[in-house]
Structures are given as structure tokens and as C-alpha cells.
Amino acid sequence: MLISIESVIHQAISDVSHELRKLSLEIHDNPETALEEKHACYVLSRYLESKGYKVEQGIGGLETAFVATYISTSGDSGLNIGFCSEYDALPLIGHGCGHNLIAISGVAMFLALSKVLDTCSVSGTVKLFGTPAEEAKGGKIVLQKQGVFEGMDLLMMVHPSAAFCGNWHSQASLSMTVEYFGKSAHAAMSPWDGINAGSAATIALQTIGVMREQLKPDWRAHGIIADGGQVANVIPDYSRIEYTIRTGWSGELGILRTRILRIFEAAALATGCTHKVKEEHAYLDNLANPVLAEMYDDIMSVKYHKQPDCNVGGSTDFGNLSHSFITLHGMYDLAGTGVPNHSKEFAKDARTKEAHERTLFAAETIARIAARCLADKEFWSKVQQAHKDM
């Protein structure tokens, strides 16, 4: 009796659904922010080790990053395929982007493809990369710079959203911290002796607001005054802005960055403050492989009886990988409620049984696409050609 690759994948994921549900809830109920995901890293690694896989922790110099590897018993002459798990949470909100589900989706895809390699006698290597700090520090960018992904033929992941889409083009983004340094003084007795760092922060944000009229429709500029002073009767000698800018394409990010930096400098000049800017890693726009994206959308469309909706904003450090590797970043509808990411409502939905089932179907879809890349040389050639054409 012949066993199809699709049935092997479906059964492999179904067999561990209950275990993955427990993992998801464990991570969801113990949210950890960027680079602090010690518990999530531990439970994921421990689970993979319990299944007999070797897990290397602390890869790329990041304590909460890991990689699990499985090589087919038929040999490693086939493709090297990697999946990504994320597991960091948002400050105050928790898993408002559903990274507890992204964590288990990566595990599901890794287990399913490992099963395919042996059951179907397919050569190749499959890896699961535990990638921390997607929300803030760009963990995948750090790992990429350290060469962790070198040698991979294909990198894939899924991400919950308010819709499904394989051909998702994310926004390029850059986050920065701006500090203003002034001079404190008594706000009633001698305000003229002070240099108001809080005013510098206020002027900066107001000026960016005025500039919005000249921003392109797909550009974004948003931030907060994280520290504007402590008490009303003291001129603040320190303030801090947390800011993020985004553009539709990576090539335009530098243009907006220059304008924003000039505004930050102008606010310092206007108030007499000095200032310092610290920039995080720039997130590049996600470049979807059209051949992989089409197969993803076809499977998801049959399941949910509707067409993909790629009108989803946001940024991801996975975009940086898409500029160097063949990739697929599949978006899927979390719960059919239309609730946006980065909200408490989304975090609540990310704990539901419905979200769990949708996550595993998306993971199964990605695993099927990965398996086809392994087994169908003609299809893989089309994927490679599409990547070259991009």
C-alpha cells in the first residue's frame, strides 16, 4: 500500500497535536520579551530532545536561540530546509502577535518533514531554528550575520494575522532610541536656568507630525516619549523617545531615516540640548517567492473557501532572510475574528483551540510545500528560477 507524502505529514502533526497544544499554552501563559525567552527556549528544546533530536543551544551568540537538526537516513545529498520558530512576547500585552503559536508551528513542520525524509526515503536535511527577539532586536538578523543560516536552500515559517496570504510583502522598518540631554532647574523659581529636554522630545514628535503630509502612502512614522521628565515643577534634564519608521521597500528606508534624523537634530538645536541616537537593526521588506506563495494560497483557499488577502502591514526580521535565501513566510487567519495583531484581544485569541487548529493546518500546508520541493525536481527548478527573477 502506497502512502502519500500528504498523509504522512497530516498524521505526523495530528499525532502530536495535544502535546503541541500544551507547549503553546505553557509559552503563552509565561510571556517573555526579546532576549529574555529562557523558559520558552527551555521547554521547546526539552520537547525536541524528548523526541530524540539533538538540539544546539546558544547559537549565534544569543542565549535563547537554538537549532535542532535531522538528516535523512538516505543521506544528506538532498536539500537543506529550515523552519523558524519565534517565541518572544510584547511588553504589557503578552503574546499579542501569537508567537506561542509560531513556536509550535515550527516544531510541527520540523517533525512532519523529518517523518517524510525517512518514511518516503527522501534525501535531505531539515533544521528548526529557534529565533528569539523578533519583536524588538531582530534576532534573525543577528543569527544571519553570525552565519547560522549558511548552507540552507530554503527557509520557511508561518505567522498568525487577520487574514491568510503567501505573497505577503512586509514593510522595511528601523527602530531607534533618541535621548536628549539638557539642564534641570526649578520650574517656578528659575526656569530660565534650565534646558528643557522634555521640550526637545515634544518638538521632535510635533515636527514629525507636521511632516506626515509629505510621506508616501506606504511610509509610516510612529513612536512615543518613553521618558519626558519626572515631576512638573522641575525642568527635565533628560528625555527619551522610542521611534520606528517604515517604508514599503528597503531602498526607501534610508530616505525617510535621513529626514527623521534631521528632525531629531533640529529639536536639540532649538532647545539647546545635546542628543544621542541609537539605531537597531533595520528590518528589510519580505520578498515572497511567487511559486511557493501560489501553492500556499491555493491550499489555504480550498480550506477556507475564499481568496487570500495580502493587505496586511507590519515588518519582520524574516524579511532580511528573504533577500539572501529562497523563503516563504505564510500568513494565516488566527481565529476568523478580524482582530488586529499587537492587541490584548489578539493575545486572548492566540490561546484558543480554534487558533491552535488553524496554526497546525498552516504548518501542515508549509510542510507539504517543503516536501514537494524535496521530491519534485521540476517544481524546485521553478522555485529557483522565480528566486533568480526576483
From TrEMBL:
Name of the molecule in the record: Peptidase M20 domain-containing protein 2
Originating organism: Coemansia brasiliensis
Peptidase M20 dimerisation domain span: 173-266
Source species taxonomy: Eukaryota, Fungi, Fungi incertae sedis, Zoopagomycota, Kickxellomycotina
Record-linked PANTHER family: PEPTIDASE M20, XAA-ARG DIPEPTIDASE
GO molecular function: dipeptidase activity
Protein family membership: Belongs to the peptidase M20A family.
Any one Pfam family match given in the protein's UniProt record, by short name: M20_dimer
